Amino acid sequence: MLHQSLSPEQVQRISPASWAYLGDAVYELYIRSFYLMPPKRSHLYHQLVVSQVRAESQARHLRSLEPHLTEPELEILNRGRNAAFGRPKRLDPKTYQQATSLEALFGYLYLTNPQRLEELFNYLELDSKEGE
Predict the structure, then answer these.
(1) What's 41's DSSP letter?
(2) DSSP element (H, E) containing 90
(3) What are the catalytic residues (predicted)?
């Protein structure tokens, strides 16, 4: 994935809410790419992607990734969790905080360590057979 080259100092000046904003898009792009094969009808792509990008699924993915995270990555999660505000009415605050913290981590890693981001994506438990 292409992105603007930023120095570590510049990345640190970006707010965790902004990391989450970017991470949301990076995560959705990964999920969309994952479900491209085998080819499906567009409405099925949409159903599969929406099921994975929901906050509840992101919170579940976060829990599955936690054993694989480093101390600095756990600190990024904490910063992302603290940036979560204005949650949707249908969600409990903890789920929303977990989803936001995962998005913040993905946004941060996208900017600082794309190889590590790919490694974490490979730990996600996604059903590749869904919708076939």
Answers:
(1) -
(2) none
(3) 24
Contacts of 84 (CB under 8 A, 6+ apart): 20, 93, 96, 97, 99, 100, 101
Rounded Cα gap, residues 114 and 50, in angstroms:
24
**Complete domains list, the chain, with CATH:** 11-123 (1.10.1520.10)
CA distance to 30, 36, 40, 68, 98, per residue, from 131 (Å)? 17, 11, 8, 29, 27
pLDDT tier, 38 (very low <50, low <70, confident <90, very high otherwise): confident
How far is 19 from 55, CA to CA, in rounded Å? Answer: 16
Give the residue numbers annotated as catalytic, written as ranges. 24
User: CA 76, CA 73: separation in Å to the nearest integer?
Assistant: 5
Give the amino acid at 103: E
- pLDDT tens sequence across 44-100: 888 999 989 999 999 999 999 999 999 999 999 999 998 877 667 788 888 999 999
Query: Kind and range of the H or E element at 46?
Result: helix 42-53
Q: Are 37 and 27 in contact (CB under 8 A)?
A: no
Token pair, residue 107, equals 């946004």
